[in-house]
Structures are given as C-alpha cells and as structure tokens.
Amino acid sequence: MRIATTLLIPAALMIGASCSSSTSAAPKPAAAPAPTAVAPAAGAPAAAGGRGAAPPPLTLEQRTARADSITAARAVYVKQVMASIAGKENLPAGEVFKNIQLMKSVPAGQLVTVMDQGIGRGTGKGCNDCHITTDWASDTLARKKTARTMMGIVNDINMTLLPKMGPGRGGAPRTIQCLTCHRGGQAGRNVTIP
Ligand code: HEC
Ligand code: HEC
Known about the structure:
Layout: H1 3-14, H2 60-84, H3 93-96, H4 108-123, H5 127-130, H6 142-161, H7 178-182
Bound molecules: heme C (2 copies).
C-alpha cells in the first residue's frame, strides 16, 4: 500500500504517548479488575421514542475503572505478542506478521506499541474488540476492517490535508490521531462517534 501510510501512522498515532517510546508493556494499574468485571451503570429504562435509548452515562469513577481494566487487559496481550516475536522486534511488521496491509515497513515491536498506545488507548477499546486473540491476523471482526479504513483516513488527513495549513506550533507537523475524535472511547456520550 502507500508508503506514506507506513511512515506516518506510527508517528501520528503515537503522539501523546511519547513518554513510552519503548515497546515494553504499558505500566499496569495495580490490581485492575477483569476486563468484563465493570458493570454498566444501573439500568435506567429506555428513553421514550427515538432510536435506541443510550445507556445512562457512567460516573467518573465507573469510567476510570472501566478504562483501567481495559488498559490492564491490553497490557497482558501486549506482553504475549511481544514474547511471540522476541528477537524480531526490529524487523518490518510486514515480514513478521501475516496480514499487514498498511503498516508493512513499521518495525514489528513498534506496531504492537501503536496497537496499544495509539489505537487501543485512542479508541478506548481492548485488543479483543478488533481481534480474535488466538489468531491476530484474522480479519473476521468487522471492527478491525473499519479500523483499517480509519487508519487510512487519519493518514490522508495528516499527509495531504493538514500540511496545506503549513507547520504547526514550533514548526512541528500538524497531526490528528484516533484519540482526536474518539477521545479514548468517551466521545460517544454526546456525539455519534463511539
Ligand atoms: C480498533 C481496532 C484494533 C485494536 C483495538 C487493536 N488492533 Fe491490532 N490490528 C488492527 C488492524 C486494523 C490491524 C492491521 C494493520 C494493517 O493492516 O496494517 C492490526 C494488526 C495487528 C497485528 C498483526 C497481526 C498479523 O499477523 O497480521 C497484531 C499482532 C495486533 N494487531 C495486535 C494487537 C494488540 C496486541 C492489540 C491490543 C494491545 C491490538 N492489536 C488492538 C486493529 C486493532
Ligand atoms: C476525524 C475523526 C476520526 C478519527 C481521527 C478517527 N475516527 Fe474512527 N470514527 C469516526 C467516525 C465519525 C466514526 C463513525 C461513528 C458512527 O458511526 O457513529 C468512526 C468509527 C470508528 C469505528 C467503528 C465503530 C466501532 O466502535 O466499532 C472504529 C473501530 C474506529 N472508528 C476506529 C478508529 C481508529 C483505530 C482510528 C485511528 C487510526 C480512528 N477511528 C480515527 C471518526 C474518526
């Protein structure tokens, strides 16, 4: 696919995660509950009319607990995948993994960091929301395919549209990332972006 995509995506997705440029697992919040342990907020009855009633908003504590638990669950998978590619972290992802269509030339270890810090954190999702975790290469889940489209959108905006505005503050390129729109999964409360 386009070279630009392979070059750009990691940089764009990594913004905001610059403090952890290593590919080791993200720091784990202490004793987070199992990923599924956080119950939705007490079930209020559906709002009258309109399309599907939105669940009641989570409290700040509930949101934090949910995010912590998803982050901890991702860290477990990151460790697992990193162990499975030990010694090959710096080889191109396209050679190490089976089904890379966009990020072929990104180092394999860095791809995993992008998955965790850029994509997972940015959308507030767990690895298992997009992947069959016993077969990472599988495109079975629709969300993984949507995510690929989204990566293309982010890339086009960063490579083609934003540069028309000229450099940003301090001469740095202007970029957006998953987090810009998805707000770590919080956007869905008020707008339609999940
Ligand atoms: C929002 C969806 C999404 C989430 C969440 C996500 N991924 Fe991915 N993942 C993708 C997409 C899309 C690709 C394919 C990228 C490409 O084609 O360049 C991919 C590719 C991969 C691959 C390469 C598999 C192969 O053999 O081709 C691995 C390994 C992987 N992801 C691990 C993870 C891990 C570990 C996590 C959690 C820390 C994670 N992913 C979270 C969407 C996601
Ligand atoms: C410019 C804003 C924007 C950016 C940046 C963006 N998205 Fe999206 N995303 C959207 C919109 C809009 C939708 C559709 C929302 C709807 O249908 O209500 C969407 C939907 C999705 C969905 C399908 C809904 C779901 O939860 O299954 C996934 C997955 C997704 N985005 C992943 C990503 C990933 C991964 C990135 C970063 C590579 C990203 N998005 C960057 C705006 C954005």
